[in-house]
Structure formats: C-alpha cells, structure tokens
C-alpha cells in the first residue's frame, strides 16, 4: 500500500510538472496590490495530495503568490494546522482578514472558488506567459 501510494504520488507530481499551467499576466502595479493581499494567505498542504495539486494549479493559473506549507514534512506547520483549524486535513487555506481575524478554509473546490472570486482576473488582460 505504501509503495502504491508512493508510485501514485510520484506520477501525480510528474504529470503536474509536465502540464504546469500558465499564469495570467497582470500589470506590475495590479500584481503588487494582489501580492500585498496574498501575503496574508497560506496554503497548508501535502506535495502529492491530488486535492492539494488541484489547488496549487489554480493558484498558479491565477498568478497568485501564496506561500505553501508542507504539513507532511514540517511538524511546526502540522501543529499550526491542527491547533488553528481543528483537524489534520489538507488542503487548508489560512486567511488573515483585514481586522486580524483568522479563517481556516477546507475543501479544494471551496478554496479555488474563494481565490477565483477574490482575485478575479476579469479586469485583467487575458494574456498568458
Ligand atoms: N474533499 C476534500 C478531500 C481532502 C482530503 O481527502 N485530503 C486528504 C489528503 S489527500 C487528507 O487530508 N487526509 C487526512 C490525512 O492525511 O491525515 C478536498 O477536496 O479538499
């Protein structure tokens, strides 16, 4: 089982690397505004978890600079997740609000919808790099 999981994980990472999505391109000033907001967001994740890969691909597609925290290999991040969010489950997005409140969001689809709504590229030129 461990071997099967390791092989699947390696395949997921390989195909994710081969088919890395392109990021949307924004004006530097617009990207800087978004970067200032995403400084207060972190993704707690496992490198080869398919749900985490899906979220990381959405982050890349949307040109977001969001820190990823590897819960598998870093006990400090694991502890932060369990203490803050109440359970060991990934992906989980930690969002620090303007007023300092912290929200922990589970479910890959919910995380992707949140990021796409908040940082919608609707006003951005549809070009890619
Ligand atoms: N429906 C969830 C599924 C998330 C999920 O099953 N995550 C697994 C890793 S792939 C997990 O955290 N399992 C608990 C554990 O590994 O301790 C999503 O879409 O985010």
Short synopsis of the structure:
The chain has helices at 2-18, 28-38, 50-61, 75-85, 108-118, and strands spanning 41-45, 67-70, 92-96, 102-106.
The bound ligands are:
glutathione
User: Which topology does CATH recognise?
Assistant: Glutaredoxin
Uncertain runs: 124-129
How large is the count of helical segments? 5
CATH class: Alpha Beta
Q: Could you say how many structural domains there are in total?
A: 1
Q: What do the pLDDT scores average to?
A: 93
Reported for the largest beta sheet, the result is: 4 strands, mixed
User: Measured on Cα atoms, how large is the radius of gyration?
Assistant: 15 Å
Helix content: 40-55%
**Beta strands, count:** 4
**Large-scale geometry:** globular
What report would you give on this structure?
- The chain has 129 residues and is of the alpha+beta class.
- It has a single domain, classed as Glutaredoxin (3-Layer(aba) Sandwich).
- The chain is 48% helix and 15% strand.
- It contains 5 helices and 4 strands; from the N terminus they run ααβαβαββα.
- The chain has helices spanning 2-18, 28-38, 50-61, 75-85, 108-118; strands spanning 41-45, 67-70, 92-96, 102-106.
- Strands 2-1-3-4 form a 4-stranded mixed β-sheet, sandwiched between helices.
- The longest helix has 17 residues, at 2-18.
- The protein is globular, with a radius of gyration of 15 Å.
- The relative contact order is 0.18.
- Glutathione binds next to loops.
What are the main properties of this structure?
4-stranded mixed β-sheet; Glutaredoxin; alpha+beta; 129 residues; binds glutathione; disordered C terminus
């Amino acid at each position: 089982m461990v071997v099967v999981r390791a092989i699947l994980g390696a395949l997921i990472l390989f195909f994710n690397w081969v088919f890395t999505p392109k990021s949307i391109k924004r004006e530097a000033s617009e990207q800087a505004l978004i970067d200032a907001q995403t400084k207060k967001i972190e993704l707690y994740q496992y490198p080869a978890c398919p749900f985490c890969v899906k979220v990381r691909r959405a982050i890349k597609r949307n040109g977001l600079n969001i820190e990823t925290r590897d819960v598998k290999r870093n006990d400090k991040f694991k502890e932060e997740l369990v203490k803050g969010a109440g359970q060991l489950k990934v992906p989980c997005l930690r969002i620090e609000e303007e007023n300092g409140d912290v929200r922990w969001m589970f479910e890959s689809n919910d995380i992707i919808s949140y990021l796409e709504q908040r940082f919608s590229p609707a006003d951005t030129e549809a070009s890619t790099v």
